[in-house]
Amino acid sequence: MLMEENKPLAPFTTFDLGGPARWFVQAAGEDDIVEAAAWAKQRAVPLFVLGGGSNLLVSDAGFGGLVLRVGLRGIAEAGAHENSEPSSPKLYQAAAGEDWDAFVERTVQDNCTGIECLAGIPGTVGGTPVQNVGAYGQEVASSIERVRAFDLKARAFVELSAAECEFAYRRSRFNSTERGRYIVTRVDYRLTLAGAPTLRYADLQRAIQESRPEGAELSLVEVAAAVRRVRRTKGMLLVEGDPDCRSAGSFFKNPIVTEEQLQSIAAAGGKEPPRFPAGPGPENLGRVKVPAAWLIEQAGFTKGYALGAAGVSSRHTLALINRGHATAKEILALATQIADAVEARFGLRLEMEPVLVGF
Ligand SMILES: Cc1cc2nc3c(=O)[nH]c(=O)nc-3n(C[C@H](O)[C@H](O)[C@H](O)COP(=O)(O)OP(=O)(O)OC[C@H]3O[C@@H](n4cnc5c(N)ncnc54)[C@H](O)[C@@H]3O)c2cc1C
Description:
Layout: E1 4-8, E2 20-27, H1 30-42, E3 47-50, E4 56-58, E5 63-70, E6 75-79, E7 89-95, H2 100-109, E8 112-113, E9 134-135, E10 138-139, E11 144-151, E12 156-161, H3 162-165, E13 182-193, H4 202-211, H5 220-233, E14 247-250, E15 256-258, H6 259-269, E16 276-277, E17 287-289, H7 292-298, E18 306-307, E19 310-312, E20 319-322, H8 328-346, E21 355-357
Parallel strand pairs: 2-5, 3-5, 4-21
Antiparallel strand pairs: 1-2, 6-7, 7-13, 8-13, 9-10, 11-12, 11-13, 14-20, 15-17, 16-17, 18-19, 19-20
Helix pairs in contact: 4-5
Bound molecules: flavin-adenine dinucleotide (FAD).
Flavin-adenine dinucleotide (FAD) binds next to β3, β9, β13 and β14.
C-alpha cells in the first residue's frame, strides 16, 4: 500500500473542490482495508472512506486524517443464464470499487431487471447502499441481497442482509445509526432475468416513446439509455466539460411530509405542491414526498442563480454547482441561503444530501 501525504482531494470529487487529505491510501483488496484500518487505529487518526466522490462536500481545509479510497474490483455471477426461464433470479456479487453505471450497463445487457432506472448515477457500487441510491421509481434497497463490509468496531468482516441494512429514503444504517462503522467491500444484487422494467415516471415514459418505433419490443438496454438521456437534460449525468455537472447531484433531500404539513405548504405557497408516493415502510404511512426543487423555486430561486462562484444548476434547481474555483464555504453559504428562504416561506427545513468531509 502506498501511503501518500497531503493529497489534494478535489480531483477525487465531482464538485471538484475542497482541500487535501493529510494521508491518503488506495485499497485494491480486503487485506489493504484491514491494514489501513489498523494503521489509522494505531495512530488514533480519523478514517474517511472514499468511493467515487460523487456525494461529498470536502471542506476547504481538507481532511486531517486518513482517506481510504476503495478500489476493489471484480464481479461474480450466479443463478440464471441466458437460457433460463424468464423471471429467474440472477445474483451479482460486485466489488465495492466497481463503477456503478458500468455495472448497471452490464446487468441490462444481460437482460436483468431491478436497477435499470439507476443508470447514469455516478460513483461506485460500494457507495450505493450507503444512502440507498434511488431514481425514477427504483431504490437499491429493493435489489440488494447482502452487503459485505469490514466492521471497524468488531475488527472483522461481516455480511449484512438487506433487512439488517435498515434501508429507508436516502438512508441506511451506514449513514445513520452506524455512520463510519463499516467499510463496504462487496454488494450482492439479486436481479430478475427478463423481468418487466420499472417505467413509473412520465418523463422516462416520454423519452422511451420518442426514441422507438410504434409496437417495437422494448429492451432494458433502451430503458437504461433513456434514463441517461433524461438525466443529461437535467445536468444529472456526468458529461466531460458540462459546467452543470460539477455538483454532487441533488443537494437537498425531498421532504417527506404529513397531510397537515402538505396543507400548510399549499397555504403558504398559494397553490397545491406536486407530490409523489413517500415509499414503503411504516414510517411513511399517510405521508407524501414533496419535490425540494419546487419548494426552492417557490422560495424565489431560479435555475442559474449564482452566489459568487457557487450556483444553482442551469438545468435543475436541486443541484448546486461549482461555477469554477468555488470554495466549500461558498457552496455552504448558498445552501444556507436556500434552506433559510424555504424555511421562512414554508416552515420546513431542507435536509442536505451530500456528506460533509472535514467540517
Ligand atoms: C450528477 C450526479 C447525479 C446524481 N444522481 C443521484 C441519484 O439520482 N440518486 C442518488 O441516490 N444519488 C445521486 N447522486 C449522488 C451519488 O452519485 C450517489 O450517492 C453515489 O452512490 C455515491 O457513491 P460514491 O461512490 O461516489 O460515494 P462517495 O461520494 O465517495 O461517498 C459518499 C458516502 O458513502 C461512503 N462510502 C462510499 N463508498 C463506501 C464504501 N465502500 N464503504 C463505506 N462507505 C462508503 C462515504 O464515506 C460517504 O459517506 C448523484 C451525484 C451526481 C454528481
